[in-house]
Amino acid sequence: MGATLRVYKRRIRSVTATKKITKAMEMIAASRVVKAQRQVAASTPYASELTRAVTAVATGSNTQHALTTEAESPVRAALLLITSDRGLAGGYSSNVIKAAEQLTERLKAEGKEVDAYIVGRKGVSYYSFRERKVVESWTGFTDSPTYADAKTIAAPLIEAVQKDTAEGGVDELHIVFTEFVSMMTQTALDDRLLPLSLDKAAAESAESSKGEILPLFDFEPSAEDVLDALLPRYVESRIYNALLQAAASKHAATRRAMKSATDNAEELIKSLSRLANAARQAEITQEISEIVGGSAALADATAGSD
Amino acid sequence: MAELHVELVAADRQVWSGKASLVVARTSSGDIGVMPGHQPLLGVLQSGPVTIRTTGESGDGTVVAAVHGGFISFADNKLSLLAEVAELSDEIDVQRAERALERAKSDADAAAERRADVRLRAVTGVH
Fold first, then answer.
1. Which residues of chain A make contact with B27, given a CB cutoff of 8 A?
2. Does A46 reside within a domain?
3. CATH number of the domain that A40 lies in?
4. Burial of A259 by CB count in 10 Å (0-12 exposed, 13-18 middle, 19+ buried)?
5. ipTM (interface pTM)
6. Residue of chain B nearest A39, judged by CA positions
7. Residue A10 domain-assigned (yes or no)
8. Which positions are tagged coiled coil (chain B) (predicted)?
């Protein structure tokens, strides 16, 4: 076998092995997307009922609460960024980090300090590489988040919101995550959780209940106490929902990235085998012409000696 | 007979839904019973058993669930019980709950003790 042919054969072998790996990763991601989507759907009843209840209290009573009223001059905002622990997901992490950067710029332009809270190793390494301050970070559960994870994340955030701004508390709470639109589309998106923008919550609940008017509620024990108990749960459930959507998006992004890697490997194998075939053909042609040439020279020699 | 629609949802799943004639739950200011046509209500639940008397298409009977914190909301003859953790009595592993209760007592872990106690009371039906 010729040297070039051997090189081609070796490259084909290595690309085939890579293709097998990416194909397997694609299949795993595909099955995980379905599971994550199911989890998102399972968490929806709780989230929508909770949103309805929050809207009911906030619109049905004149209660003033620290978590619903906007500060007159907000000076500090908390930003919760949800990324993934692992890469191999195309532009997934960089897209959501870019969205967070834009939000940070916007908040800074409005004259607010930004406190970063980060979920996922990718976001943490991005911030630590740039030596930026991170208030708190969590890693290790981004592939399949549980409600308990959402609670651990929500606790310090709620505490920061309730604290006085002068003592290091925050006036606003923003969340940046990747929304799972469909298998093919996932968009990085930022959202303000607190203070609650009631128009939006009302619109959401109107959507889910098809424009019904909320009745006047009787609160047990009192509107303030209900709101006190309700808002932290609301934040937790929103964070939980964001974590689940981010997980589904991550798996979908992985699937797509691995699919294009598999396709590229196939393409590469095809062109490499064309080259290998040409090299083999060239070798054969050369051998034949050498034989023909050799026998012609032999024939000439015998004819000359006669 | 009048009936109301009940949804019992935990943070990560829907636990039970159906028709009922009476729902009894424990709020922070005492037990509250909700029957069809009740005034719109929104209350904070304490951990404790929730009793649902089913009727209509859900069949006559009683469903008991252990609910660990959450909210009760009633409007338009629809009752929602929202809880971070909610288990139906027949999903509860009694032995495990008993073991948890023992362990909580020896560790003096009040929260865990209450959780296990609520589970056991939901199973045995002693309120």
1. 220-221
2. yes
3. 3.40.1380.10
4. middle
5. 0.76
6. B12
7. no
8. 78-121
